[in-house]
Each structure stands twice: as structure tokens, then as C-alpha cells.
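Predict the 3D structure for this chain.
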Amino acid sequence: MKVQEIHLPTSLAFCNPSIVATEEGWWVLVRAIDPVPYQGPQQECLSSENWLLHYADDFTLKSTLKLDDQKIRQTCLSVRNGLEDGRLFLWKGNYGVCSAVFIERAKVFITP
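Done. Predicted structure below.
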């Protein structure tokens, strides 16, 4: 086992990678976030990017792609700061990416 460093053309901090092995090598999805700490709903929110990297079997980088999420950011208020918690998976020969929607505030009412 060896450590594989990930390099992205962004100034944001990396976190939360997801990896899947294929016959052609490896696919890695990495979330990059604004390093400013989140300080509550009244303050500026974090922003994020999602990057898809393709590696050969020997972990030679083949391609890097920033996923374009601008359309969903503009049409869905709850993800205006970016998609979160992406996961790669292989199912029936197809690849998938699934991201959760960030819920800003949730109220729970408990009645006696």
C-alpha cells in the first residue's frame, strides 16, 4: 500500500473523497470547500466544488474535471453554495454520483 497524493487546480481545501475501481483504473470524487469556518445561518455560507479525477491502474493521473453545478445552484436555493457529500459507485456497469441536499434549517415540533 502506498499513499497517493491528490492535487487539484483550486485554492479550496479538500475533503471527503470517494473512490471506485474499474477495469480502466480508478475514479475519485473529491469535495473541495472554502476553508472559512461556517458561523451560522446569518453569516456567509461555505462554498464547495466537486472534482472528478481519473487515474490509471498505476495511479498515473489521466484526467481532472470540475463538475459544473451552476444550473442547480441557480435553480435550487438549498444548494446555492454547492452540492455536498458526493459518492461514486458502480452498479450494473454504470457509474453514479449521488449528492445530498443541504437543509438550512429544520424545525421539529414535539407535542405532548
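Residues 102-112 have pLDDT under 50 and may be disordered.
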